[in-house]
Amino acid sequence: MLTPVLSAHWDEKDSFTIEAYKRNGGYTAAPKALAMDPDAVIQLVKDSGLRGRGGAGFPTGMKWGFIPQNDGKDHYLVVNADESEPGTCKDMPLLLANPHVLVEGVIIAAYAIRAKHAFIYIRGEVAHVVRRLNKAIADAYAAGYLGKKIFGTDNDLELVLHIGAGAYICGEETALLDSLEGFRGQPRLRPPFPAIAGLYARPTVVNNVESIASVPSIVANGAEWFQAMGTEKSKGMTLYSLSGHVENPGQFEAPLGITLRQLLDMSGGIRKGHKLKFWTPGGSSTPIFTDAHLDTPLDYEGVSAAGSMLGTKALQIFDETTCVVRAVLRWTEFYKHESCGKCTPCREGTWWLVQVLRDLENGDGKEEDLNKLLDICDNIMGRSFCALGDGATSPISSSIKYFREEYLDHIRQGRCPFDHAASIKAGVR
Amino acid sequence: MTTEVVDQITVVIDGFEVTVPKGTLVIRAAEKLGIQIPRFCDHPLLDPVGACRQCLVDIEINGRAFPKPQASCTIPVEPGMIVKTQLTSPVAEKAQRGVMELLLNNHPLDCPVCDKGGECPLQNQAMTNGQAESRFEGMVKRTFEKPINISSQVLLDRERCILCARCTRFADQIAGDRFITLSDRGALQQVAIYEKEPFESYFSGNTVQICPVGALTSATYRFRARPFDLVSTPSACEHCASGCDMRTDVRRGKTLRRLAGDDASVNNEWNCDKGRWAFKYQTATDRITTPLIRNAAGQLVAASWPEALAAAAEGLKAGRAAVLVGGRATVEDAYGYSKFARVTLGTNDIDFRSRLISDEERDFLAANVVNNNSSYLDIDSADQVVLVGFEPEEESPIVFLRLFKQVRKRGLKVTAIASKKSIGNEKLKSNFVCVAPGSEAEALSSIQLTEKSLLIVGERAVETAGLLTAASELIKRSKAKLAWIPRRAGERGALAAGAIGNLLPGGRPVSDPAARVDISTAWGVHGLPAERGLNTDEIYAAAKTGEIKSLVVGGVDPFDGSEVKDALAALDKAFVVSLEMRTSAVTDRANVVLPIATVAEKSGSYLNWEGKARSFDVAIEDSLLRSDVRILSMLADEIGRPIGLPTVASAAKEFAAIGNWDGAPSEFAGVAANPKQSISSNQALLTSWRRLLDAGSMQDGEPNLAGTARKSVAVISAKRAAALNVADGDLLKISNANGAILLPALVEEIHDDAVWAPRNSAGSELLRILATASNSVVTVVKA
User: Fold this and answer.
1) Nearest residue in A to B136, CA atom
2) Is residue A429's pLDDT more than 90?
3) How far apart are the C-alpha atoms of B362 and B671, rounded to whole Å?
4) With B663 labelled, which of B16, B252, B297, B466 sits at a CA distance of 20 to 30 A?
5) Is residue A98 within 8 Å of residue A15, measured between CB atoms?
6) Inter-chain contact A372–B135, Cβ cutoff 8 Å?
7) pLDDT tens for residues B547-565?
8) What's the pLDDT tens digit per position in B768-780?
9) Has residue B1 got a pLDDT over 50?
10) Quick check: B106 contacting A, CB < 8 Å?
């Protein structure tokens, strides 16, 4: 049921080296792509049906196609490696175990969009990943895969690794560009879209790590190979990251459309003696699911039809020992801390939501607070400047939808009915 | 200017059709229909940001609706667009209510003690679009220390701030002064200054004015008044020749604040900090409020008006008299002085130029400036602008803003010919042509201009012989537009009024008999003096020798010229009638002092550098002080040769009726440049300009404003610094035979032969101490 492509060689102890990557067939897709017409590369990626793996699921080839060609301007490729959605841990493990697949993907993508300069924007906290990626880039330069006349062709490509300062907002692509330019990261007004005026006001493609890392395999194996995996509109394999109350958490590379039930089977199930209570399909910004959604196909359409979003495929699993109010409060505290402050709804709304939720969790709330919470969420959702404000409301409105009684229990009992210490201890073996 | 044909687009807003030019924002199209969409961050002169989210509306285009409400301040109209505002869309209405509620949650609601209360967009819109009851009860508000100084003049109350980014966008986009920025994040996001770099922008006051809450306040106005207790009068700025539209707010006979008015053709909605905050001179303790006569013991004593007028008349009748009127007079007052000199005193010995002057300049003004009609629009349409003898940010700040706007908007090419690169040059991304002081003419001769270019010549061009000649030739050669921009508000008006020895009112050459007939007919007098009058320096010299017996002096500081010793000796020797607001070096030496009104206490008008008039009315109604022209008219009556200008209005009417000279303008012969001066190794050629905020007497009494002035420094080149073994901050001594000044050194881009110091700043009063301000040899050594 698994389809390891990106993760195929993670268990080799030198998997992150250029030797291992080449031994396993790496750096053969790039010369192949460089021999093609750039438009043909874009068409290939379009044909494969690859969609953005960063959360929004926008078709990658189509994004590349938006770059105006022959406009005489510099083009830029920017890889978003600022993975910061709570629960998401796919790009960092990928870069730790196989940084060269990203470098090769960058070479192909930059060639396709006619960029001579590419950037990888990575979180500052992940020092070890930064070291591996730096080494990979240095090795690629030394091997002639980056720099002047790459792979002996007439193409040049400079690749710069930029280390961010660790802000959730800098995962938003336009804030990322501001940060990359040396400014404080806050989202930009669109239009103009990055494809027209992105980094340094030049046509720019911003792609997630996993999206770019998927490209070498598509070039190597063809669009049909990729299309053979996944569902009708969600093609290919992808990394699902399971965390929380599961026996064997980790990354699972599977075709799009797999279900949580299948993933739980492979990961040893919910921790022993406990049962699934709720989970996020794609990080904390996607409305939560419950055990009723165990068989929901985890592709873009399936999750959406069930009222949530595939997001980053970060499946955070919570068993019945977890207080949903407390979990939602924690997430909301995160959003309050990370709100960039640019727009009123997100900035002021998260400040308020935390206080209402804290009262509810402490048993100091009132029943009207639930409607107030939902109304505040309604005033943030779709009113904020960027999607991060929308995301802040997802756990709240979805948790009230599925667990209203649990909220009310807090109010009735005047305290949180859960034993948090016991919930933690339940995981200790 | 070429008028572009802009496509018109018709959209439907709340069921009404409106047609607007392509590119118009939805919020602005709605305004055209009279539909007010609430907003905070939106400002028509700033780039859209879409931060506050108050202006959300529902939009559909050709039947396709946006899934969520859109910020109407960021979206341009499109064909087929249907907009529903809060008036017709319940979704938009709820969205706006929601945002308003959120904005108020962390707002302190200290309206009763807030300067903005009563004129606050947040207060007003909360009343219109907000809800009476708060649902934030029992919650914790964000708190900050309040207020904090971000400059000595501007205070920031972070609790009140709604983070609309108007101030930071203004600083960045309009003034080019990135002194303030937003820092931190979430609800703790705040406006901040850089460490150790206060908000010392010349334009900082505009941020106080456009702040939609009481977050930015000025130290001068804070807690002084409620807006509804103020009486507001449209006014004109008396501080420079930019020509700002202003508003003066008065309470109980005192000016409490001044705001920028809205004149899109001149200052848009902006002004500079000097115009905004330098008005305390009006209430200085040394204001003169009654006539004064010097008694036998040599002391000035209070006198009645009849006594003082009689004494003044007697002195003026005794012999040859001349008139000196500073560059601060209104058009009406300058016209009064002009007519008084000719009709009452029978002389052309009058000069409004209380500064460094030349006869080359006087002829240049008569030939090229008095009927010149260049304007701000020429900046907007210029293919390039060349600046010489002119530092716009310091000497005409609104011209600077206009240049900056064009540089930012369309990359206007600006060339600056000067000896020192300035902060303003850098902000304008100027092509800096570095010349030795005195060599500007040579550089100007090699400049290529087209018919669409604009050459801006500042009043300091007078300081290099031959420079105005070179400018005149360049204009003739290239057909480019010319603008002459003096520093003072009254100079262009005084030129038009003929307060100068070679011109009669309306630009009529004194030397032209037809021109004299025009004026004598208008004035109903028999003949006018035909001889070209003396200039300021010549008048002082003649008074010093006793050739001129008496002087009428209005608004002149003898330390503003280069012949300071002559000026003081002349004022000591001659019989002096001084028309003044405050005690000065002139009143100290005057025989009769007649008190006059400040700009707030009188009506009148100024001509800005474009020659465009801005009239203003009396702001302080109950003042007993009167305009110069009224007093001159009384004095003329007393002397027995009346000028018949009993009111400002009568002067304005008479001057307007005279109109401009339609005969040939006087020819400008031009002069040759001076030979290059040679200097030894410890000598330099002095160059300087007045800073916007300096020791000028009309900035007196406002320490908060003075606190934002740029520090006095002596600027030398890296080469000279190395030769003198001087680093930034080391004291330099600049001296000549007249005296010496000590200033900390600053190594910057400046001609190796030059040393620059501010002309009239604290510790650097060049004319007072060195009796020179430019192009002269000084000794520069490490102190």
Assistant:
1) A352
2) no
3) 12
4) B466
5) yes
6) yes
7) 999 999 999 999 999 888 9
8) 999 999 999 999 9
9) no
10) yes
Mean pLDDT of chain A: 96
Does A340 touch chain B if contact means CB atoms closer than 8 Å?
yes
Segment B514-527, tens digit of pLDDT: 999 999 999 999 98
pLDDT computed for residue B563 by the predictor: 86
- pLDDT tens digits along B184-219: 999 999 999 998 889 999 999 999 999 999 999 999
Average pLDDT, chain B: 96
The question of ipTM being above 0.90 is answered as yes
To the nearest whole Å, the CA of A5 is away from the closest chain B CA by 37
Residue B536 is which amino acid? T
Q: What is the mean pLDDT of residues A198-203?
A: 97
Provide the strand spans (E) within B79-204.
Answer: 81-84, 148-149, 154-156, 180-183, 190-193
pTM given for the model:
0.95
The SS3 assignment for B402 reads: helix
Residue B67, chain A, CB below 8 Å: the answer is yes
Q: Is the pLDDT of residue B715 over 80?
A: yes
pLDDT per position as a tens digit, B371-400: 999 999 999 999 999 999 999 999 999 999
Extract the tokens encoding B115. Answer: 């300067």
What is the sign, positive or negative, of the torsion defined by CA atoms of A334, A338, A344, A345?
A: negative
| Binary contact (B187, A189; C-beta < 8 A) | no
Q: Label residue B298 exposed, middle or buried (CB < 10 Å: 0-12, 13-18, 19+).
A: exposed
Q: How many CA atoms lie within 13 A of A285 on its CB side?
A: 24
- If you search the block for the tokens 């708060």, which residue do you land on? B134
Within 112-171 of A, beta carbons closer than 8 Å to B belong to: 167, 169
Task: Quick: pLDDT tens for B8-34.
Answer: 999 999 999 999 999 999 999 999 999
d(Cα B227, Cα B473) in Å, to the nearest integer? Answer: 53
Nearest to B641 by CA among B317, B311, B304, B308: B317
| Nearest CB partner across the interface for A383, out of B56, B135, B138 | B56
Least Cα distance to B496 among B609, B345, B354 occurs for B609
Structure tokens at B293: 């006569």
Dihedral sign of CA atoms B143, B147, B151, B153 in order: positive
Helical spans, DSSP H, in B261-375: 273-277, 305-317, 331-339, 359-364
Of B50, B68, B185, the CB nearest to A341: B185
Cβ proximity of B302 and B291 under 8 Å: yes
C-alpha distances (whole Å) from B529 to each of A62, B35, B516 are 84, 63, 8
Residue among A398, A284, A290 at smallest CA distance from A331: A284
Contact between chains at B185 and A189 (C-beta distance less than 8 A): no
The secondary structure of chain A, three-state, reads: CCCCCCCCCCCCCCCCCHHHHHHCCCCCHHHHHHCCCHHHHHHHHHHHCCECCCCCCCEHHHHHHCCCCCCCCCCEEEEEECCCCCCCCCHHHHHHHCHHHHHHHHHHHHHHCCCCEEEEEECCCCHHHHHHHHHHHHHHHHCCCCECCHHHCCCCEEEEEEECCCCHHHHCHHHHHHHHCCCCCCCCCCCCCHHHHCHHHCCEEEEEHHHHHHHHHHHHHCHHHHHCCECCCCECEEEEEEEECECCCEEEEEECCCCHHHHHHHCCCECCCCCEEEEECCCCCCCCEEHHHCCCCCCHHHHHHCCCCCCCCEEEEEECCCCHHHHHHHHHHHHHHHCCCCCHHHHHHHHHHHHHHHHHHCCCCCHHHHHHHHHHHHHHCCCCCCHHHHHHHHHHHHHHHHHHHHHHHHHHHCCCCCCHHHHHHCCCC
Residue B459: pLDDT over 70: yes
pLDDT at A55 over 90: no
Instruction: Give the model's pLDDT for residue B133.
Output: 86
How distant is the Cα of B168 from the closest Cα of chain A, in angstroms?
A: 13
